[in-house]
Amino acid sequence: MPADSVLQIKITLADIRPPIWRRLQVPADLTLDSLHLTIQTAMGWENYHMHLFQTPTGDYGRRDSELGHRDERKVPLYAVAPAAGDKISYTYDFGDDWVHRIEVEKALPREPGTAYPRCLTGRRACPPEDCGGPWGYANFIEAITDPGHEEHDELLEWVGGAFDPSQFDVEDINKRLTAR
Known about the structure:
Blueprint: E1 5-13, E2 21-27, H1 32-43, E3 51-55, E4 58-61, E5 69-71, H2 77-80, E6 87-92, E7 98-109, E8 118-123, H3 133-145, H4 152-158, H5 170-179
Helix pairs in contact: 1-5, 3-4
């Protein structure tokens, strides 16, 4: 794979219906620690918690020999998922256990004058931090959409007064990716 290649990837949050996902184009030589920060920005997470990449070649995150986690700072994406159809997973927040499925859709040449990483499209808002994982998020959505729910007011206040689960703004994501 040429060093100047770009991988188009789709990141889908597991166990959520309707799906929450992002389609990104990233440099193939982007290291996994930089991919982590890119995912945080594109999904809307706050980078408060630990994370881990699970790949065919092993688990990568902050190096931890006791847990068997290799150093993500030394591994480019193309080394663990170089071709269309390759899949890895990324888990964020070991308490809430947000599992993201990452699939390489295609490899492309870089477009001159284009900033990478960039978000092409996606669907739905990222769940709020610390809402309890996929099951807690389902309960959260149920509560904020039902004014009669006993936790309705409390959870709306917790998220700042409003939360639109269908909200997605590709321009905002790309501004944040560029500012990183």
